[in-house]
């Protein structure tokens, strides 16, 4: 039992780290832009002047830039150094992880996209109300740091950003990020396998409160949280719990709380946390009935929250290490591995700088102005704020391009989905339950990406296409339940045939109609 708990926590932490890696790299890029290009004064101008307007400004910037609750830690560190108030800092910190172009597109293709827009407006209320009240009660939270000398124009300025990113990976920021990841492991040790399957029901008044307890130590990327929201909508779960999952599960983690505790003290941290919880939980109960979809039959259970529970119900074949390696190999996506590689390179660079250059002579050399005689005539001096704006545009454009890569055209998605379907249905027919249960969620994920990919390219997703995808999804889900409940093989064979027919009809609809 203890082996399953330990290795389950290890798997969950590694999975969360891989999911976070691209967002951590993006967060370091944003922090480097603020630190080396904008500076303290430019950062204050970007986010406003610690007023009500600055709360809205920080919320908008957070909604535009891709991030996660771990990736914002180096960013809020720079915001604090620039002398911004707590309300403004956390308006950005809470809004950036909630939505990005990938997750927003996903949400807009759900059966009730207005729910996602309502969630976005509710998040604005959360950061505005809690931030304004906190700044009113604690008006002197600005703690500006010492302004660094500007780095001379040219390649040195870009190198200075890279050096800053590398050093940040071996600083206290990384310690807070690791604490946030450990929260995922803690949840896995406390929640047995499948223990949340029958929770978060719409008719249970305690669902939002239970989700609050789970969401604070949890970590979820915007895409993960949006996928869970989609599953909750489809299964008729609590809308209030769904909003809390987005606001706290995606927007908060243990590392961010520890960062605030260290820099602002226990009293201010508790006041801010209580304020935010009152607003978030209050809104969750307020939107429960108005936003609940009346055309959905509530399901008696869901797998949306399995990622927070222990992944092992029994000793896997081949042992825990072999199973962890197998799952990571099958489930890790290309962008996660790329992000992990970039983060590993930065960490190695940071360790080398920390070991070989403890007195920061590299930064001193980078800050030395170049000789005018050595400066080429074509080397135009571009102002740092212009470069910063270009950097933000590149990050935003990269996330938009990533949408088209993550949500391929329907023909490519159907091809990938066909591979996953073959694996899942073939395993179900042969009696390989674990293999089938592994591939069915992958089929469901590709089905969602199929819908988003069509929406991205056509600007709409018809009810006809939604219905075809929904039928295939329901067939898959029923097959999953039959496998879990140990149904007879003839019944499974009939369900496999029905699922295969639903896939063929869905593929024809998305490719031909």
UniProtKB/TrEMBL annotation:
Give me the Gene Ontology terms describing cellular component: plasma membrane
The answer, when asked if Transmembrane helix is one of the entry's keywords, is: yes
Q: Which residues cross the membrane?
A: 6-34, 55-76, 82-108, 115-134, 174-194, 239-258, 270-287, 337-353, 386-407
Which superkingdom, per the lineage? Bacteria
Q: Which UniProt keywords apply?
A: Cell membrane, Membrane, Transmembrane, Transmembrane helix
Q: Where in the cell is it found?
A: Cell membrane
Topology relative to the membrane, per the entry?
Multi-pass membrane protein
Q: Which InterPro entries match?
A: DUF318 (IPR005524), UPF0718 (IPR052923)
The text of the family note is: Belongs to the UPF0718 family.
PANTHER family, alphabetically?
A: UPF0718 PROTEIN YCGR
Name the chain's protein. Permease
Annotated organism of origin: Schlesneria paludicola
């Amino acid at each position: 039992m203890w082996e399953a708990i330990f290795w389950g926590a290890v798997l969950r932490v590694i999975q969360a780290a891989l999911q976070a890696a691209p967002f951590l790299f993006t967060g370091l890029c944003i922090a480097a832009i603020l630190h080396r290009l904008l500076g303290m004064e430019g950062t204050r101008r970007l986010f406003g002047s610690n007023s009500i307007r600055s709360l809205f400004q920080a919320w908008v910037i957070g909604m535009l830039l891709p991030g996660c609750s771990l990736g914002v830690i180096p960013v809020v560190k720079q915001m604090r150094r620039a002398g911004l108030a707590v309300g403004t800092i956390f308006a950005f910190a809470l809004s950036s992880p909630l939505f990005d172009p990938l997750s927003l597109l996903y949400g807009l293709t759900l059966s009730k996209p207005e729910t996602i827009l309502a969630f976005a407006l509710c998040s604005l209320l959360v950061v505005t109300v809690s931030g304004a009240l906190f700044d009113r009660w604690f008006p002197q939270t600005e703690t500006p740091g010492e302004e660094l000398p500007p780095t001379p124009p040219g390649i040195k300025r870009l190198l200075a950003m890279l050096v800053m990113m590398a050093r940040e990976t071996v600083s206290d920021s990384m310690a807070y990020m690791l604490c946030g990841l450990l929260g995922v492991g803690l949840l896995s040790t406390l929640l047995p396998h499948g223990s949340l399957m029958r929770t978060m029901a719409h008719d249970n008044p305690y669902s939002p409160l239970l989700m609050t307890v789970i969401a604070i130590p949890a970590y979820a990327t915007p895409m993960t949280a949006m996928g869970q929201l989609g599953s909750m909508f489809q299964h008729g779960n609590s809308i209030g719990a769904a909003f809390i999952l987005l606001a706290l599960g995606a927007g908060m983690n243990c590392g961010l709380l520890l960062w605030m505790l260290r820099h602002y003290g226990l009293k201010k941290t508790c006041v801010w946390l209580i304020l935010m919880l009152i607003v978030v939980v209050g809104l969750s109960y307020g939107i429960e009935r108005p936003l609940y979809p009346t055309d959905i039959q509530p399901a008696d259970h869901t797998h949306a929250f399995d990622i927070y529970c222990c992944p092992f119900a029994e000793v896997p074949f081949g042992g825990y290490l072999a199973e962890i390696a197998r799952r990571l190999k099958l489930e890790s996506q290309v962008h996660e591995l790329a992000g992990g590689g970039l983060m590993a390179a930065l960490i190695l660079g940071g360790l080398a700088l920390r070991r070989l250059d403890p007195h920061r002579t590299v930064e001193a050399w980078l800050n030395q102005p170049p000789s005018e005689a050595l400066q080429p005539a074509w080397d135009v001096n571009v102002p740092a704020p212009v470069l910063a704006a270009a950097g933000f545009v590149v990050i935003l454009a990269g996330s938009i391009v990533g949408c088209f890569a993550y949500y391929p055209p329907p023909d490519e998605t159907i091809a990938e989905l066909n591979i996953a379907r073959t694996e899942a249905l073939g395993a179900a027919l042969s009696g390989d339950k674990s293999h089938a249960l592994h591939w069915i969620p992958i089929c469901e994920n590709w089905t969602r990406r199929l819908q988003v990919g069509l929406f991205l390219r056509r600007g709409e997703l018809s009810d006809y296409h939604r219905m075809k995808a929904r039928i295939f999804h329901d067939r898959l889900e029923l097959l999953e339940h039959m496998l879990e409940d140990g149904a007879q093989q003839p019944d499974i064979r009939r369900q496999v045939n029905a699922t295969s027919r639903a896939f063929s009809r869905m593929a024809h609809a998305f490719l031909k109609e």
